[in-house]
Amino acid sequence: MKIITCIKQVPASSKVDVDPETGVLIRDGNNVKMNPYDLYALEASFGLKSMFDDAKIIAVTMGPPSAKKVLEEALYMGADEAILLSDRAFAGADVLATSYSLSQLIRKIGEYDIVICGKQTTDGDTAQVGPEIAEFLQIPHVPYVTEIILINKDSMTVNSSFDEHEEVNEIFFPCLLTIEKGNLVPRLPSFVRRRAMNDYKINTITLNDLLDKDINNYGLNGSPTQVEEIFPPEKRTDSILIEGSKSDLANGLINILKENKYV
Known about the structure:
Blueprint: E1 2-6, E2 9-11, E3 32-34, H1 36-49, E4 56-62, H2 68-77, E5 81-85, H3 95-109, E6 114-118, H4 129-137, E7 141-151, E8 155-161, E9 166-172, E10 175-179, H5 191-196, E11 203-205, H6 246-259
Parallel strand pairs: 1-4, 1-6, 4-5, 5-11, 6-10, 7-10
Antiparallel strand pairs: 2-3, 7-8, 8-9
């Protein structure tokens, strides 16, 4: 069984810089970490691998060269291979262009059984990339998977948790899952694996390596949505003191809310 696990490098805090011209986050490799939901995707992948003697996990990510750090983390946790999709042509991609780029990478990799993604990323929170990858690959997909119940030769049965209900679905290979936390507890990177993979070279794939080399389908060129404006929230410590009776306090608070158009 071949499992492709998509991961991403995201800002490690809310303090990030924004390019004033393009409106996209500046990713310089500092103050970054693996997307937390991708840790659950990796753990789900390791669980699947333990069920098959010949299973292989390929961790993939799209980003600048510094994104190799999260791929190294995935390797030290238990992934067998790692691939970085990196090219200046991919910069500024929205969810659609990102999904298309990753789908092209997966087509480049070749045959696979399962693609696994975290349910969403903490820097975008759209939860769209996984399902859109599946649509570009024309394979079935199930989101918000909390448990893999059963695996057969040609399919698997999974439980998904939505806001107001749960679903149990059978899905046939090849397929894509996005993983919710569930009962998964991500493992830590192994020092033994780190030493064993000290000489491992992460493969970098560029636009010229993909089947579709049309630059208009990637990055800002291939993004139908554009950020009009993005800025860090202004930090303020202003305060207003309201004194008087309970009625005075209530009326004063209501007036402030009305003035600021909250009510």
